Amino acid sequence: MENKKKEKLRPGQVQARPGIENEMQPRPKSEPKSYEGGKLAGKTALITGGDSGIGRAVAILFAKEGARVAIVYLGEDEDAVYTKDQITAVGGTCRLIKADLSKEESCRQAVEETVQLFGGLDVLVNNAGTQWEQSSIEDISTEQLLQTFYTNFFSYFWMTKYAVGHLKKGAAIVNTTSVTAYRGSPALMDYAATKGAIVGFTRSLAGNLVKKGIRVNAVAPGPVWTPLIVSSFDKEKVASFGSDVPMERAGEPNEIAPCYVFLASEDASFMTGQVLHPNGGEIING
Questions:
Q1: Which of 113, 137, 260, 282 has the maximum number of C-beta atoms within 10 A of its C-beta?
Q2: Which residues contact 60 (CB under 8 A, 6 or more apart)?
């Protein structure tokens, strides 16, 4: 097979070791990036599961960084309105979209409503999720399995499918996976499987969109104190939730949200197909 010559990206040059940066052509860029109005100024972001937990923290921080925000939520009106109020309080703009994203048409409508309202879309954050604890695979019904995949994975696929046509060069997609995708979870087998699927989807989509200038990355949180926890486990597990990680505590949503801002902004301009791991110190080599 004939070797393909590499395209020259810069003039060929050689210096004596260790080299002089000021004599390089072109010179490496070392000045810090600056963002007038915030890291996401002028951008429109669509965040699923944005009413509470990680999604709420991401939505508020995005707004503080200058983004117009649309959040999709299932039915928790009180939480959603509170999130909108918090965004308004920091001078942001927020649209609430109530929808069941386990249905493909709802995903399409959520994207179209956002684009029609704000005139475009720059950042998609796929974050909605659900889980049910089961001690045995025999206790996981087909109905539960399908609902978990429809909510946790199919919605990510559908949201992206309908959003990608509106995304331009410089846009970003950030998916929420989980530490369970890497180490598993004996009592959350179907949930962990969806999170593993999200990792594969993120890496594949990143390669598919890289030449269009659209970056795709993910965040894999460890234990985080959100409503999903108190609605999933018994009182004893809730009381000790997060104590098994090296930091011996669960994270807070506002400790996770900066990962999303980083991946959505030009700070992460050289990152695609990657996963960040805010998990309290657990080493998972992923």
A1: 260
A2: 83, 86, 87, 90, 92, 257
Does the pLDDT value for residue 3 go beyond 70? no
CATH superfamily of 43-276: NAD(P)-binding Rossmann-like Domain (3.40.50.720)
Average pLDDT over the chain, rounded to an integer:
95
What's the one-letter identity of residue 124?
L
Whether 191 sits among the annotated catalytic residues: the reply is yes
Q: Look up residue 36 and give its two tokens.
A: 């007038």
Of 73, 150, 162, 191, which one is the catalytic site residue?
Answer: 191
pTM above 0.85, yes or no: yes
Q: CA-CA distances (angstroms) from residue 47 to 56, 108, 128, 239, 245? A: 9, 14, 8, 29, 28
Burial of 86 (0-12, 13-18, 19+ CB in 10 A): middle
Q: Which pLDDT tens digit goes with each residue over 95-108?
A: 999 999 999 999 99
